Structure formats: C-alpha cells, structure tokens
Amino acid sequence: MLQYSLALGQSRPAPRPVKPTACGREREQAALSVVVEEFGRKGPAVVTVAGRPGFGQNTLVRLAAELAAGRGLRVMRARATQSEAGLAHGVTAQLLSTPDAPGAAEGPVQLPGLSWVLRSARDRPTVLAVEDAQWLDPESLRWLHALVLRSAGLPVALLCGGDEVSDTEADWLVLACPAPGLTVHHYRLPPLGHAEVASVVAHSCDRWGDEGFVAEAWRITGGHPGVLHDTLRQFTWHGHRPVEAQVPELRAICAVVTGDHLLRAVRGLSAEAVAVIRALAVCGDVLDFRVVCALAGLSSLGESRLRALLSQVPGISWLPGTGPRVDPAVRARMLEEMTAGGRADLYGRAAELAHRAGVCDLAVAGLLLGAPPVGAPWAVRTLRAGAVAVRQQDHRRAVAFLTRALEEDPAPAVRAELALDLAAADLVEEPEAGDRWLDEIIRGHGRRTAPRAAAADLGLTGGGTAVVRRAVAEALPGADGAERDDLLALYWCADPTGQEDTALLVPDVPPLPRRPLPPAQAGVRAWQLALRGRDVDLALDLARLALGRHPGGEVLLQPRLAACKALCLADHHDEAEAGLDRLLRESSGSRADLAAPQLLAVRAAVNLRRGRLAAAERDVTAAEQGLRRLGRSAPTAAQLRSLRILVDLECGRQDRAEALARLPLPAEAERSDSWPNMLFAQGLVALGAGRPEEAAQLLRECGRRLLARHCLNPALLPWRSAAALALHVAGEREEARRLGEQEILLARRWGTATALGWAQLCADQVADRAGRRDRVRATLDVLREGPAGPGYVRALAEHIELELADADGDRESAAATLAELTVLTATYPAGPMAVRARALAGALENGARPAPRPAPRWPDLSPPERQTAVLAGRGHSNRDIAATLSVSSRAVEFRLHRAYHKLGIKGRPELQVLVRAMEGS
User: What are the pLDDT digits (tens) for 738-779?
Assistant: First the structure.
C-alpha cells in the first residue's frame, strides 16, 4: 500500500481527470433518458437520484441536464456545497445566475426570483438541475419546494441528485413527495453488480478482465462506483493489466483509494459523527456500538440517524448482528488525521472501557499499544497475557506487548519478570536481540535488571553460549551468596569441560568443587563427570541432588537438564525421563518454546537407549516441529537429525537414513557441540551401506572433536567401537583391536552395563574366534543389568548365532533367547535385528529341535508377587492389574520390580515368555 501512496508524490504526472461517464450505470442512464424526453410535455416533474457518496448520482444528473439542453430546454444549474450549507439562498442564487434571470434581488424576499421562473417557464420549458442536494441550505430547499408546489400545469422539471442520508437538518428528499398533477421519479442507486463491475473494468482497462480479477475487484470495492473508477484509473496508470496475477497490486491501490474516499466523506460530517468514526477505527471491532458512541461523546446526534449516516461512508461495513466496522486497510488513514495526543488519549480511554467491559486480554492489549501508560496493575497483566496469546502466531506483536508493559513502570519484581519474558520472546525468532537483553541483565547495566542467574539460564536455553560465558565471567566478581553459586554453575554449564577459548575472560573463573552442595552446581558437576567418564556413583548422587525438591531460590533449567543427561549416561533412564518430563511441565510461554526441542531431543536419546524406538521417533518429530520457528536452531537440529538417522537404522529404513545423512545442515551446526553426534550417525550409515573406509574416516573425526573437548566417556558416543568395526572390515585389524581395547578400558572406568557391554560386544567381533561364545555369554550377562536397548538386542542375536553354530551349543538356551529377541523386535519387522531374528528362527527350525524347556518355577516369589507377575505376563497393564487385585499402581510396580530381581529377568518381554512357557506346560 505504501508504494502506491508514495507513487502519487513522484515526478511522474498524476493520472489526469477524465470526463465523468455513467459506465456501470447504463440502466439508470437509459431510464433517465426516457424521463427527460417527457420534460415539457406532461406538466411539472421531479426527478431525484439518491445513493451513497460516490455512487454516481451527480454524474447522472449532469448527463440528464446535458440531454435536456440538447433538446432545447432551458437548463438552470446549481451545486450545493458544504461550505455554503449555512448561507441563505446559496443554491437559489446559483440557479438564478443565468443571463436572462432577474437575479436574487427581485421578487419577494422570502422566495427571490421564483415568480420569474414560473412565468418564463410558460414560454420555454425549464429544467432546474441541482447536484449534491444533501448540502442544500434550508432557504433554498424551501424555495425549491415552493417551486414544485406552484408549478401545476407548467413545463417545469426539477432534477436533483444527492446522498441518501446527510448530516444536516434539511432532508432534500421531501422534494420527491407526490402532489396533484406532479410526476415524480425517484431513483436509488445500488452498488454495482458483478456484471457492471466487469463492464467498468473493460472500459477502464481497454480489455476484458480475467474472471478472478473482476470477482476480486467487485469484492474489495463493494461495488462502489467511485472507488472502483478511481482504483482502476490508478491501476492502469501504473501500467498494470486486469489479470489474476496482478490482483495484489489491485488490492494495494484500492486500499489507498478507499482511504481517500473515506476522508472526503468524513470531512462532510459533523464533529460528533467524525468522533464516532474515529472511535470505530480504534475499537469498533472490540466494543459494542453503543459503547463506541459513548466513548466518542455522542450527545445530540441520534443513534438511528448516525447508523444511517455511517452506512453511506466508504470503508465502513456492517456485519449482520453486529455494529459498523472500519475497514482495517483504511483504519490508519482515518487515525492519521488526528493529533498524536488525541489519538493516544482515545486509545487509552478505549482500553479502560474495554477492560471494564470484560473484553478478552488480547483485544485490550492491542488497544494499550496505542495508549500512554495508564499506571494501573491491570495493564501489565493484560499486556503479558496478550503476549502469551500471540507468541506462537505473531512474535513481533508479543515483543511489542512486553515492551509496552515495561513502559507502565511496574514494581521491581514485576519489571524483572517482564525483562526475562521480553528476552525470551526475542530469543525465539530474533536471538541477537535477546542476547543483547540478557547481556545487559547479567552484567547489571541499566534499570531493567532481573535475576542474573535466571537470565544466564535463559541465554543457555536460547543457545547464546558465548554471550552467557562472557557476561557471567564479568558478573561473577560482583556476585555473592546463592547468586554467585548459580552463576558459577551456569558458566561451567556453558562450557562443561573448559575447552573454550578463555584468553579474553578476566578474571579467571574458578572450577566447581569436586562435590558441590548447591543444586545447580551439583547438576553441572554430574555432567562434567559423565563427560569425562569418571566416578559414576558420585555423578549419580550429584544428579539426584540437582533434581531434588529445593524450596526457595531460583530453579534453573540448564543445570537440571545436565543432571538428566548424566543420569542417562549412567543407565538410570527412568530417573532421567522423570526429570525431563518434569522440566517439560514446568516450562511455559516463550521459555517453553526455547526449551522444548532440547528437552525432547534428550528424551528421544533416552528412549533410543532403552530400545523404545516409537517413543524416540515421536519425541524427535515433536522437537523438529518446535524447532522450525526458532531463530537459533542449528545445534539442536544436528542432534535431532542424528537421532532420526539412528532410529531409521534401527527400524530398517536404510534408504531414508542415507538421504538424511546427505542433507546439508547450516554451517553453525558443524561448529556446535552436537556435530559429533551427526558424524557418528553418518559413520554408521556408511558402515551399513558397505563403505567401511568412509565410515572409519567419519567416526575418527567424531572422536577427534570429542577428545578436543575432553569428552572421554564411551557412553556418550561409542565412536571407538564403531570405528573398530569399520577398520576391521577395511582390513586394518590391528588398529581395530587397539580401539576396541581402549573403549573397554574407558567403559570399565565409567562402570555402566550399557557402555561396558557394548564395548565388549564390538571388541569381540574384531577379536579371534577362540572363546568367543563364552565372551558373548559374559557380555550378555553384563548387558542384562542395563536396558533392553540396541546393544542388548545385538548381544541376544550373537548369543543365539554362536549357540547354533557350535556343535556343543545350548540349543535350549538359544530357543529361549530367540523368543525374547522376537518379542523385542516385533514392533519393527523391517529392522535389521528383526530380520536377523527371523533368519535365526529358520536356522533353529532346520536343525535339531531343542528339548522342551521345563516349566518355570516361582520358588522365590511370594503369592502376591506371583499373582501380579502372571497377570503382567499375560499382557495386562499396571492399571488393569491394580484394579483386578484391588491394590494401588505403586504396589503393582513394587511387586513387579521384586519379581524381576528374583527371577533374574529384565522386564515384561522376558516375563511374557516365562508365563507362556509355564502355562503351555
């Protein structure tokens, strides 16, 4: 719209006025022609042409007058104006200004020149044509009315055109009242129809318009002839053609033209009517029409008359069952006519009225944007609620609401919350702006201060690691107490292994204590230990301390997320998932938008490690959806891409994994901490596709980046064992053996079942075959202590294969293990382990059938434990078991946990196998 507004002020000449035509009013013009033909033959006549402003009534009056003059009739013309509406006999004087008229001074003072007009009409038929009759002064209206009443039998015709409703006391349509011997014709001009608009388009553009173009022209102009003609004149002046592709240009020009017509119409209204239109422009879509009238200070102008008057104004529409609405495209044009102070005052009063009327927070917040500070607590609450309501759809508007809330000068505590809300909103789509806010808050500059630890935590959630590190390093010397403890924790959360460039950080930042007591420091310290692969028991204690309930103090997200990640690497996946679920519940607003992708990515990794592929896939999908609207998403995007590739590989979707591995990622992703995850996934894709050299190169680069950050724990990414497999296939047996042994040493130092079992399983595949069956049995025993994840499933398959391959293998054990493997891989039948399970089942069927396994016995289970285990083995859920046995769900969980421990099994899949075998026997 702006481009067309500016174009009118360019050096190119504006479109020249064209001779008015009745294009689009051919039907009315034909009817008037018939009436004009009768002038002077059948006595006096009155013809009125009424319509909304700009509907072409003056043009029709002018064309009819020219037609009458062409027939030799005397034509006396006048045009009423708003400026002369208060001038007595202003229109009468114009009518009597013809050369042979006696002038206004002759005749009676009350009706000057009237007798002359009547006398002269006997000699020559006379037509009096009046345009813009709505502005007739009362004296001229009485004069014309007297002329009509005294013209019986005389060849006098009165031709008037004007608006249907005017903002004056005089109603010119009284001239069309029937009288004896008087012929009356009244024409009310409707909006143009679709066919008429098509005709106008063809006339203005010298060609017929596309159907879609004509339909849009009819819709946006509402069939208003004046708006349509002016719009098309501007449209053709800009060189456009009436085709559908240029409908956007038509809309923009129409918005400007409609605004011009609105302003012209408004200038002819009373101050009260103008005030109502301004109020409508501000809050007509929020408040009831009567409340809008009260806001405008309406006193003398009746509401019914006002409704009729507003219906004539271009740009004001009436919706069924509601009040008038100012077209949003021209609303700004209306408000531009006001002073800045008057506009702000109107917005302020409208906001207060809307608040009192219980209008929704979003609408009231929109009004407050244009109002000065109101100094009331409800304004801040409303603006914050408005920001929450629009943050998903309109980030800029949410930021505007929060910025406006700060102008209310709230209490310091509320100001601190607002500052963090504003920073969080900015971080979603404009992270650089959010970084500037957080840098100011953390360093303590300016009035808009907030808890600095919370600001640093928010900055890390938004991905501003470098900004947070620098700002926290500067803020630490001036901090003390709990704030200093939290800031120190967040500094090391931004750089857990201390490998970032610290040359510019003055003063030096002290390390975390070995066993810190503050919860935030405990969570970060647990993650540090997990990354280095040391002291798993201490890491577990610290992670649990960080995730515990701590009344009072600032609850920070990133240290608790670090604790969840440490629990994941320590094989305590249930605790990690519970912590992540709690963090997801506690996050809200823009902070939830920032945190959710990170939290879901970690939960997806937890589910993948437990072998819950469907849950992992759901989490990855949800995280990707939340990541699309974030302005800084490269690090998390790389992590999610790698997780999706790993899930695809486990589900047997090798082709899709290949395609994902080849898709490019932003350069920022390659510089992030998550890039090793992507390299690891790409390496596994290459290994599965039979490209061991490429796989070894990718996995070694993954290891190089991890080692550069002192990330030694193989539980994080077992790149050594994967590289050993690739090198073994490529023929580098010695290097493969060295990497496998190194991973076993590091896994033993960390001490978790998953890390050690996976390292042993992969190392065994590159070692000599002698004693391999015993080693796999030992590895399987280790992995039974962890989750039923990918490593455990592969160990089951290796165990079955070796038992079947050896002549003295335990086929009974292989059959039982195969039953468990089949259950664990049933969800994704195309997965590599499901395919392998079917192949092993075929091998088992082709060999000697194993002897029937004796029915399991439950010697160590109490009767309640045995009863609960049997129901669970039959496939009942914990909730169903609790209802059947009339106990709590917690009691069911406790009994199953005891049963798993006593029977030496891992969970429901094995329990189902045991129950089926027992009941089958």
Answer: 999 999 999 999 999 999 999 999 998 888 777 788 888 889
- Retrieve residue 383's tokens: 């603006």
Continuous H helices in 536-653:
536-547, 557-569, 573-586, 589-609, 613-627, 634-651
- Asked whether the beta carbons of 136 and 144 are under 8 A apart, the reply is yes
Long-range contacts of residues 201-208, Cβ cutoff 8 Å, at least 24 apart: 201/232, 201/242, 203/21, 203/23, 204/23, 204/229, 204/232, 204/233, 204/235, 204/236, 205/232, 205/235, 205/236, 205/241, 205/242, 206/236, 207/241, 207/242, 208/242
Position 20 confidence tier, pLDDT thresholds 50, 70, 90: very low
- Residue entry with tokens 């509406």: 85
Per-residue pLDDT at 749: 96
Q: Is the pLDDT of residue 19 over 70?
A: no
Cβ 39 vs Cβ 157: under 8 Å: yes
CA–CA dist 613, 400 (Å, integer): 42
Phi, psi of 188 (to 5 degrees): -110, 120
Whole-angstrom distance, CA of residue 148 vs CA of residue 44? 8
Handedness of CA 808, 813, 819, 823 (dihedral sign): negative
Q: Of 239, 175, 236, 252, give the one whose Cα is nearest residue 201.
A: 236
Rounded Cα distance, 214 and 111, in Å: 50
Beta bridge partners of 326: 316
Give the C-alpha separation, 314 to 310, whole Å. Answer: 9
> Is residue 271 within 8 Å of 237, Cβ to Cβ?
no
Structure tokens at 121: 């009409």
The whole-number average pLDDT for the span 600-629 is 93
Q: Write out the DSSP string of 648-695.
A: HHHHT-HHHHHHHHHS---HHHHTSTTHHHHHHHHHHHHHHTT-HHHH
**Pair of tokens at residue 391:** 């943050």
Tell me if 763 sits within 8 A of 724, measured CB to CB: yes
Which residues on adjacent β-strands are paired with residue 131? 79
Fill in the DSSP letter of residue 372: P
Place of tokens 């004009």: 36
Contacts of 827 (CB under 8 A, 6+ apart): 613, 614
Q: Which two tokens stand for residue 333?
A: 């044009």
Mean pLDDT check: name the lowest of 641-645, 858-862, 900-904, 907-911.
858-862
Average pLDDT, the chain: 85
Measure CA 597 to chain center.
16
Give the CA dihedral 267, 272, 273, 279, nearest 10 degrees. 110
Q: How many CB atoms lie within 10 A of CB 838?
A: 14
List pLDDT tens digits, range 128-170: 999 999 889 999 999 999 999 999 889 999 999 998 866 555 5
